[in-house]
Amino acid sequence: MSIEQFIDNEVKSNDVVLFMKGTPQFPQCGFSGQVVQILDHIGVGYKGLNVLESAELRDGIKVYSNWPTIPQLYVKGEFVGGCDIIREMFQAGELQQLFADKGIPVDVAA
């Protein structure tokens, strides 16, 4: 399986996927950490993939999305954005609405 096929499979077979530096339990960059905090605060389930484990994955996801930075969040197969976009959407309530619109359960207390 090529790296493009691997990424495509992960994005399409998981409702929410975060390509990040480190893991959800141990983010290894501040931007990845911020997105993890936001997703955890909202209470949405997601799969975190550590791009530091593979240069092929780190480079491949940038090509796949045509987006130069990590982290990258995908919801229902669709690229949403990186840290700044996710933070702005969260602060405006748009991220929570996106999950609701896509039928992904969140912690309503958030």
Describe the structure.
It is a single chain. With 110 residues, the protein is α+β, with helices and mostly antiparallel strands. The protein has 5 helices and 4 strands. It has a 4-stranded mixed sheet with strand order 2-1-3-4. A hairpin with a 2-residue loop joins strand 3 and strand 4. The longest helix is centred in the first third of the chain and has 13 residues. The relative contact order is 0.20.
Short description:
Keywords: 2Fe-2S, Iron, Iron-sulfur, Metal-binding, Redox-active center. By secondary structure, this protein is of the alpha+beta class.
Assign the CATH architecture: 3-Layer(aba) Sandwich
User: Which consecutive residue ranges, at least 5 long each, have pLDDT under 50?
Assistant: none
Strand order of the largest sheet: 2-1-3-4
Tell me what portion of residues adopts beta-strand conformation.
Answer: 15-25%
The domain tally reads 1
Order of helices and strands, N to C?
HEHEHEEHH
Question: Based on helices, strands and strand pairing, what is the structural class?
Answer: alpha+beta
Provide the CATH superfamily.
Answer: Glutaredoxin
> What helical percentage do the residues reach?
40-55%
Outline:
globular
Q: Total helix count?
A: 5
Largest sheet: 4 strands, mixed
Quote the distance from N terminus to C terminus: 39 Å
How much is the average pLDDT?
A: 96
The level 1 CATH classification is Alpha Beta
Q: How many strands appear in the DSSP assignment?
A: 4
Family: Belongs to the glutaredoxin family. Monothiol subfamily.
InterPro entries: Glutaredoxin, GRX_PICOT-like, Monothiol_GRX, Monothiol_GRX-rel, Thioredoxin-like_sf
Keywords: 2Fe-2S, Iron, Iron-sulfur, Metal-binding, Redox-active center
Domain Glutaredoxin: 16-80
